[in-house]
């Protein structure tokens, strides 16, 4: 089969100094949350097949544990084996007193072994600009390559959602927009305590608008869109159902809070072998029909299906994701 150019092939991970446009396409099917204050979990996370790990200084880390957790994270980033994984640290949001110390300690201490900073509860573009400026200062001071560390922006309330497009375009460093359902549900008074599940009494999908708005901001700016956590960690069927919904819309991945969710996420956010094979057939058929030998036509038939330029674009997405997943 011909090798087709793809937006998501040859994806760098593990601190590659590739151009930013490539970093935005790192695989992030499964984004594993690990409390930065828990060395046992930090050890175990290294052996799990998650595409991304994020070492958390925010809500999984108690206020009194945060100062020590910063140093624990630096040690694990520098000494751990995170090969093949995108390495991210979630700092505290700008309304707290912890953010600057989180960023300075972690980036000065382990900036060369870190791919992105995740900023939670982002409400305005200025909050992204502030983080970008701080990162640039640290990179210059430390002699690191300027601009290599990316930003992942978490949308967790109504103001953040209203400003999501400005947030997405606030800095070249932004790689992903992440939906934070737990904080979001709380902030809009949604009548449910089960994160990721539909609130009782509403007959449709209560998350559709939020997910689509995040997805549009991401796609309009060539960023990735990531769905947040599902807290019923023993309910793998529930996880699968919620993950499938986000994957069907076009999201690139989802958080995993438990090893049991990793395989499910990797599978759900990869195309099936059947879809991948079909996409490759579409690309071959399109390449042939537009070639000299195929008559330079703009469309062709593949079985009962008409293939044209738009089909080629859809097939490229599936084919790129399939290759990234090793199909
Ligand atoms: C994640 O941070 C969430 O609030 O869902
Ligand atoms: Mg949150």
UniProtKB/TrEMBL annotation:
Start and end residues of each stretch annotated as Disordered: 1-21
One Pfam family named in its UniProt record: HpcH_HpaI
Cofactor: Mg(2+)
Keywords: Lyase, Magnesium, Metal-binding
Residue stretches making up the HpcH/HpaI aldolase/citrate lyase domain: 29-259
GO molecular function per UniProt: lyase activity
Protein name according to UniProt: CoA ester lyase
């Amino acid at each position: 089969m011909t090798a087709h150019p793809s937006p998501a092939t040859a994806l760098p991970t593990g601190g590659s100094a590739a151009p930013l446009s490539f970093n935005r396409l790192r695989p992030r099917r499964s984004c594993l949350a690990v409390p930065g204050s828990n060395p046992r979990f930090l050890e175990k996370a290294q052996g799990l097949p998650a595409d991304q790990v994020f070492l958390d200084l925010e809500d999984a880390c108690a206020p009194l544990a945060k100062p020590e957790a910063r140093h624990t994270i630096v040690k694990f980033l520098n000494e751990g084996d995170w090969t093949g994984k995108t390495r991210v640290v979630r700092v505290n949001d700008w309304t707290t007193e912890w953010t600057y110390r989180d960023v300075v300690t972690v980036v000065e201490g382990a900036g060369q072994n870190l791919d992105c900073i995740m900023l939670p509860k982002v409400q305005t573009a200025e909050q992204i600009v502030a983080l970008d400026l701080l990162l640039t200062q640290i990179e210059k001071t430390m002699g690191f390559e300027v601009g290599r560390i990316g930003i992942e922006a978490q949308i967790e309330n109504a103001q953040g959602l209203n400003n999501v497009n400005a947030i997405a375009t606030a800095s070249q460093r932004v790689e992903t927009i992440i939906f934070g359902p737990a904080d979001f549900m709380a902030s809009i008074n949604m009548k449910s305590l089960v994160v990721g599940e539909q609130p009782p009494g509403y007959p449709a999908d209560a998350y559709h608008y939020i997910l689509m708005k995040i997805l549009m901001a991401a796609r309009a700016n060539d960023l990735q869109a990531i769905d947040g956590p599902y807290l019923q960690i023993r309910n793998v069927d529930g996880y699968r159902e919620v993950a499938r919904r986000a994957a069907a819309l076009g999201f690139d991945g989802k958080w995993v809070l438990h090893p049991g969710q990793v395989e499910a996420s990797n599978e759900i956010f990869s195309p099936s072998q059947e879809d991948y094979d079909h996409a490759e057939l579409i690309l071959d058929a399109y390449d042939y029909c537009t070639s000299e030998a195929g008559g330079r036509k703009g469309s062709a038939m593949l079985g009962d299906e008409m293939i044209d330029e738009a089909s080629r674009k859809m097939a490229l997405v599936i084919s790129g994701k399939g290759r990234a997943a090793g199909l």
